[in-house]
Amino acid sequence: MLVVRLTLWNVATGAWPPASTDWLPLLSRAVRALDRHDLPEQIEPQVGSLAAVAVAVLRSHAPRYEITPETLALNDASQAVGHLLPAVDSAYVTESTALLDAAFGPAVDQATVLDVASDVVQDDPLADAIWTLSEKDRDVHRHGQLFLHVTGRFSNPARVALEAVGAAEDAPLVGAWASSDSGGGAWALIVWRRPDLIVVDARRPIPLWGHYQLTGLVGPRALAAQRSFESAASGPHGPRNQPFELAQQVLSDLGLAGPRPPHCEP
């Protein structure tokens, strides 16, 4: 615990240049050393709270939509101490963030630390996706356990919906709407249930339906990075302006009567 505290304090006092991230692997290794299975139960809140603060700091430096050394440092630390985070105590979080707020700002706010700890414990792909999309300046919210809804001004809603599904592709079943304020209210719905990707693209008055089967290393996230569906195998289902049986079954499994996005207040 002392090593973790000293690492955070040294970073906060400017031991590394402001733009440097060389300290992130050091902090990650220090956090991983907290992963002891012989901890007395009575000190788990102190250890878990300090771990949560350190993980929140790592989180603030790691992008969510790509794999970087910073992301790997965060993932390694989170996996090591995730079992300690349910014991987090807000009073100990406040104690552990003393002298850190000037350097790390909102990353060490109590609410942020508790939210990050909750995300690690719950391991919710849609919650992670909302963080990811927000970092990309998307206006996104959630509908229930299975849907994301992105709103804004964009010319290709299907590409935006694909980006959202890609951010949550670890979920066994997930759907994402993208509703544009421009282009006459164009919208799209994409549903991912491995290996099937169902696409409903409504840039025209009559929506077009599509189906892609993704295998191997190609998933929605990879397609979103390519900004196209070209590398995916398209399934033949007759006229594209009509829904096909697989799509109707997937929508039914999601509890949807149709593909149109819900009306959401700003």
How is this fold's topology laid out?
Layout: H1 2-12, H2 23-32, H3 44-60, H4 69-81, H5 90-96, H6 101-104, H7 110-122, H8 125-135, E1 139-143, E2 147-152, H9 157-167, E3 174-180, E4 187-193, E5 196-202, E6 208-213, H10 220-226, E7 233-234, H11 245-253
Parallel strand pairs: 2-3
Antiparallel strand pairs: 1-2, 3-4, 4-5, 5-6, 6-7
Quick synopsis:
With 266 residues, the protein is of the alpha+beta class. The protein has helices at 2-12, 23-32, 44-60, 69-81, 90-96, 101-104, 110-122, 125-135, 157-167, 220-226, 245-253; strands at residues 139-143, 147-152, 174-180, 187-193, 196-202, 208-213, 233-234.
Walk me through this protein's architecture.
- 42% of the residues lie in helices and 15% in strands.
- The chain has helices at residues 2-12, 23-32, 44-60, 69-81, 90-96, 101-104, 110-122, 125-135, 157-167, 220-226, 245-253; strands at 139-143, 147-152, 174-180, 187-193, 196-202, 208-213, 233-234.
- It has a seven-stranded mixed beta sheet with strand order 1-2-3-4-5-6-7, with helices on both faces.
Provide the descriptors you would attach to this structure in a database record:
11 helices, seven-stranded mixed sheet, single chain, 7 strands, 266 residues, alpha+beta
